[in-house]
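tool=predict chain=A
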Amino acid sequence: MCTGKCARCIGLSLIPLSLVCIVANALLLVPNGQTTWTDHLSLQVWLMAGFIGGGLLILCPGISAVRAGGKGCCGAGCCGNRCRMLNSIFCSAVGVLGASYCIGVSGTALRNGPNCLIGDKWDYHFLDSGGSYLVNDTLWELCEAPPRIVPWNVTLFSLLVAASCLELVLCGIQLVNAVLGVFCGDCRKREVH
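tool=predict ok
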């Protein structure tokens, strides 16, 4: 596969993944679709890893990769597609950082558990469980408020981890692809006029 076609394919995969992360982070802000619990959201929700890291910082390399898969900054001129591939290198590096941020924050959120009410105390009650609460769903019912917060957080943060892992791999591949595109050019045939 040519570097240009590969870049376009990767970019078209990164854009929807970034939108998935943005939507997942937006849903984390409204547990069960209710806005009454915003005072008790966990720190990891407020760090906006899905919106910033997995979302906006991935849109940049996604759009850049799609553009790098185009005809090139000079059309059919001497530099071909190398300028856009060079830009894609920097954007992909930013994407690797963004996806890593999202994985780190979301993984920490899964390990710590949500901030919830048990008895009359709001706290991170699963913090000392080392993440073992994830496989013991009978513990999930201990959280009285927000209702069903544990499955809500587990589902959405797991989605963020999975999407960000894919983003990390795709940005890494695009980083290598763009370096090859800068040094080797694109293998697509030039149009003869």
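The two ends are 25 Å apart (CA to CA). Strands lie at 116-118, 121-123.
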